[in-house]
């Protein structure tokens, strides 16, 4: 995936994860959370024997969303 698609993908995933987890943040935060969440979700899915984030599709979106929600949860736990 090109860098522009990763940024768009990250922004969408991060925005939705922020809504699901009820966390605030701006556009840059959403992009970072989405992209790092995709990496985390892909890593977790590869440990479970499933395919990781491999394109701009629904499966990758769900995996990235799962990873982004886990990332927000970890950040909250560390801040407390």
Written overview of the protein:
76% of the residues lie in helices and 0% in strands. The protein has one domain (3-79). The protein has helices at 3-20, 27-47, 58-79. The mean pLDDT is 86. Helix 1 (3-20) crosses helix 2.
Question: How many separate structural domains?
Answer: 1
The chain-level structural class is mainly alpha
**What's the quaternary structure here?**
single chain
Number of helices: 3
Unreliable stretches covering 5 or more consecutive residues: none
First and last CA, distance? 36 Å
Order of helices and strands: HHH
Instruction: Please summarize the sheet with the most strands.
Output: none
The percent of residues in helical segments reads: over 70%
Strand content: under 5%
Count the beta strands: 0
Mean pLDDT: 86
**General form:** globular
Which value, in Å, is the CA radius of gyration?
12 Å
Short description:
The protein is mainly α.
Topology:
Elements lengths: L2 H18 L6 H21 L10 H22 L1
Label this structure with key terms.
80 residues; mainly alpha; 0% strand
């Amino acid at each position: 995936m090109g860098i522009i698609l990763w940024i768009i993908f990250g922004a969408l995933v991060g925005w939705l994860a922020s809504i699901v987890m009820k966390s605030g943040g701006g556009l840059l935060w959403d992009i970072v959370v989405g992209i790092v969440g995709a990496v985390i979700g892909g890593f977790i899915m590869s440990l479970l024997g499933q395919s990781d984030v491999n394109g701009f599709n629904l499966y990758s979106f769900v995996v990235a969303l799962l990873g982004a929600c886990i990332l927000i949860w970890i950040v909250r736990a560390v801040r407390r």
